[in-house]
# Entry
Amino acid sequence: MLKSGDIKLSKEIFLTSYFSDEGTNEPFRMDVTQLVQEIQLYESINRSTLTGVLVLVDAAGLLDRLPLTGNELLEFTAHSPGFTPEDKSTHGYDFTMKSGFPMFVYSIKSISEPSPGVKTYALRFCSKELIKDRQRKLCKAFEGPIHDTVFKVLRGHLKSKKNWFFEQTTPIVKYVIPKKSPLDTIKFLCKESVSKKFKSAGFFFWETSDGFHFKSLENMITNPSGVAKRAIAQYTNSPKLMAGARYKTKKGNTIIKGNNERVFEFKILNRYDTLSNINKGVYASKLVTYDAFSKEFDEQDFSYPHEFVNTTHMGQISKDTTSETNGLMPIYNYEDNKLLSDFSEGRYMFLSATQGMHHETTDKEPFDTADIKNTIQRSISQQGAFNSFSIELLVPGNTAVTAGSVIEFSTLTSSGVDNPTIDPYMSGTYLVVEVRHIMQSITNNTIHNMTLICAKDSISRPYMKNDKEVLHTEKDQYADFDQYEIDGILS
# Structure
């Protein structure tokens, strides 16, 4: 019978050494399944590659046969059942030599002896692309859309043969890379990227069990039609809604949630940070640009509530039903009939907006540069909004939930013990920013949980508007004192 957190691990977990097995041309492989105490796997939209930790407990000195050098490959598979009993295919990790994507063991940490003759090892591993990245530097020019350049770096310099999921960028650009590693080059290009479809800038490059991804925030949360994506999984920390089964079931017109949707622990990492949002330019910013060709300066202000309705947000069903009040900044008379977003100099930027630097009089389309005047302030605000509203969930493990997925979370308000209601502000759809899988008791009823770091940039129940100034009630009765005069009077 399937239960929450079930995972199917490969029967054998191999450490593969760099030297050949005796008398063959095959690498020496050791089955360490019986030694494995814990496996941790990490993926995040802020990390370029997969990483993890393998904890081994060796009481028989088996690992002395290798020996461990930090140049081993790690082979195993891990797949969770689907979201429903009807799911035919499983979704997970395949790190075998057969797939061509084993993980590279790059470090041996925390070697200890909890008892005589017993050694505990913590082996850190990563995707082979991360190792290749540290060995290479690029010093060359790239021409074309940025997504094409990322493709060339991924395939030509990192030599990756993994799947690649990308979003098209604009315009046609030319960059000269001055001795940067492949992944540092991609990080630089992410900051320069502008979506071809959405009015957003700033991309992310990361790896999941599916392969590599190169997308903007808006692409992660929005369907091609412009409507926010539906959640692939629903989680709740309400124990009264739990059923005994793994999957949710239907009783008449009532949906009874299953244990696969249970939340063991729930933490609020960030709910708001007004001072930080002002400093980062989430609410407002002023951009001064300089065009070296025309010798002209241009100045423009960004206001969060005015731009909010022009982009798609978490949980948004239709732009027609979403207003600036669904944003994270309350709309009220902050000071002298001004909003928080009317003070644009909280984030002041001066940047070059020179375009046509690589213009060529050929039949090819001329090169251009990213249109920072119309994108950078929106990008800074959007990314800052996601960083300012985040939660951490400990839930049953499921390898089908990956970084960049959209999930739904509901929690109850603390008010009204006898009749609790769904919290309209903390509940809703979230973007999964980071996934941490933890698999324990590998050889005996494996326990698989995962920690999800999730974020959102809007709320389902709008904050109330207020055109009355209520926060500034300082009286005008004050005085200024010269300390020397006070000291003279007292003396």
